[in-house]
Amino acid sequence: MVDIANLFTTPEQKKAVVDSLANFGATVERATTQAYDRFQRWFGSAQDRAEQWFQVHVRGITIFFSIMVALLLQLDTIDIFRQLRSQPAIVAVLTKSAPDVLAQGQPLLQPGASPGTNATEAENCSGAADEYRIAKAKLGLNWL
């Protein structure tokens, strides 16, 4: 900086050149920092928009494939719910048969148990299944 200042003859000019060169460094640093901050804000907002776009599209794809899986697997949950809600007799029959079904399944929860381990259990399960089929047929629940 002193070499550049020596190009000028008067002391006022030399002082003005040295001061302006010192201010120039601070000005460049400030401008660089501001440009960097603006870039970071722009990049951050662009990244936020890209993330939002990705989330929206993945959500749509997920919904589409879940509907397709439900249709392919023929999941009748909505129909079953509607029928149970509209016909209290079905709910009563299912509620009445629940303790028997749980009691018949209890031996299977024992360690080492498997269906048909003993003939009496197999007969009980077979009889309960027949009773269940008959009750379903009486109520028109062949879809269950």
Give the structure's gist in a few sentences.
The chain has 144 residues and is mainly α.
Structure description:
This protein has 144 residues and is mainly alpha-helical. 80% of the residues lie in helices and 0% in strands. The chain contains 5 helices and no strands. It has helices spanning 2-5, 11-72, 77-86, 88-105, 119-139. Helix 3 (77-86) crosses helix 4 and helix 4 (88-105) runs antiparallel to helix 5. It is rod-shaped. The model has no long low-confidence stretch (mean pLDDT 78).
Q: Which residues form runs of ≥5 with pLDDT under 50?
A: none
Overall morphology: rod-shaped
Sheet/helix structural class: mainly alpha
Number of separate strands: 0
Give the termini distance in whole angstroms: 93 Å
**What is the percent of helical residues?**
over 70%
Question: How are helices and strands ordered from N to C?
Answer: HHHHH
* Residues in β-strands, percent: under 5%
Q: What composes the largest sheet?
A: none
The averaged pLDDT comes out at: 78
Evaluate the radius of gyration: 41 Å
